[in-house]
Design goal:
45% of the residues lie in helices and 16% in strands. The chain is an alpha+beta fold. Strands 1-2-3-5-4 form a five-stranded antiparallel β-sheet. Helix 6 runs antiparallel to helix 7, helix 6 packs across helix 9 and helix 9 runs antiparallel to helix 10.
């Protein structure tokens, strides 16, 4: 049974010393993995209290607590946006209640962002700032470090599991296999990453990014992991604007970031398919299969969506001459 906002407020007062709550309102949707409330205090502050309802949400909130503690004041000062601050916790058997400060803003609607939109540029710069943080603080906090080979292994595992269902179109299987076999695609320098970036965790007011939530997957890994969500939009303007601003800050240290991000975005559909098969949900499986076939149509008609580095064996002089000779003898085949 869901806890009421008043119950959550009482838990928050146990978690934070001298907290004087004047009112509380529910936060989140019915059926959420956490019970949550927005608290208003006598001094005008706003806080959020969350209590996990599932094992997975309990794990995620515990991981986020570790991450937020690792984000010291010095690290936060390098970011152009606020990060939630953990204020305290209290027992809420069989788990705990977690209290944070409230960040202003609303989640980004990527479908409303165009290429020249200042918000897209600010998002790109914000993500680049995360990736520019020193990796040492992540290692010091004993948070995950994912190297290129680890990232490739993870991608291959998802691809193999999805392919084994027999429901992935052959064109996508071939496309993904080429990407996993392209060594140049996976030669990236791991950076600090948020790890679960999406439009729903990026808050904004107008053109300004006012905060980023959901730090439970903070790690060192593939920077493309924080960018693929932008490519899932039906509009390309937002993605173009985000990547352009991101690349200006980060430079040309990794020219293949967008291609790996494209692959990650496509594999989200494969994950949806696997979720459907695991849950034995015909509706989810049918939805995923339809999305995969739509993806085939898109990638076959959009030359900008290549996900390999287009490296091919260099032809010898004899091979070039033979090709030209064939073209001259069979001009209709050009």
């Amino acid at each position: 049974m869901a806890r009421s906002p008043l119950t959550l407020a009482a838990l928050a007062t146990s978690a934070v010393d001298a907290l004087d709550v004047t009112s509380a309102s529910p936060l989140g949707s019915t059926g959420s993995a956490t019970d949550a409330a927005l608290l208003f205090t006598r001094d005008g502050s706003r806080l959020i209290v969350r209590v996990p309802r599932t094992k997975s949400s309990d794990t995620a909130l515990g991981a986020e607590l570790t991450s937020l503690r690792a984000l010291s004041g010095g690290i936060r000062a390098r970011l152009p946006f606020p990060v939630p601050t953990f204020l305290g916790d209290a027992p809420a058997p069989p788990t705990r209640a977690f209290v944070y400060d409230h960040l202003a803003g609303t989640p980004v609607d990527v479908t409303r962002i165009g290429r020249g939109d200042p918000l897209a540029a600010n998002i790109g710069r914000g993500i680049a700032a995360v990736h520019s943080l020193p990796t040492s603080f992540v290692a010091d906090a004993d948070l995950p470090i994912v190297r290129p080979l680890d990232a490739l292994t993870s991608v291959s595992a998802i691809m193999d599991r999805a392919t084994s269902t027999g429901l992935v179109p052959a064109a996508l299987v071939d496309r993904w296999e080429h990407a996993t076999e392209d060594a140049a695609l996976w030669q990236f320098a791991p950076t600090v990453i948020h790890g679960d970036m999406s439009s729903s965790v990026i808050l904004h007011e107008g053109d300004a990014v006012t905060g980023i939530l959901g730090w439970h997957a903070l790690s060192v890994g593939d920077p493309a992991r924080d960018l693929f969500w932008a490519l899932g939009s039906t509009t390309t303007g937002a993605a173009d604007g985000i990547f352009e601003a991101y690349n200006i800050v980060r430079g040309s240290t990794d020219r293949q970031t967008r291609k790996r991000a494209m692959l990650y975005a496509e594999l989200e559909i494969a994950k949806w398919l696997l979720h459907g098969t695991e849950q034995r949900s015909t509706d989810i499986v049918d939805d995923a299969v339809a999305m995969l076939h739509d993806l085939v149509d898109v990638v076959q008609h959009d030359g900008t969506r290549n996900i390999d580095t287009n490296t091919r064996p260099v032809m010898t002089v004899e091979e070039v001459e033979a090709m030209l000779d064939r073209d001259e003898r069979h001009p209709e085949g050009r």
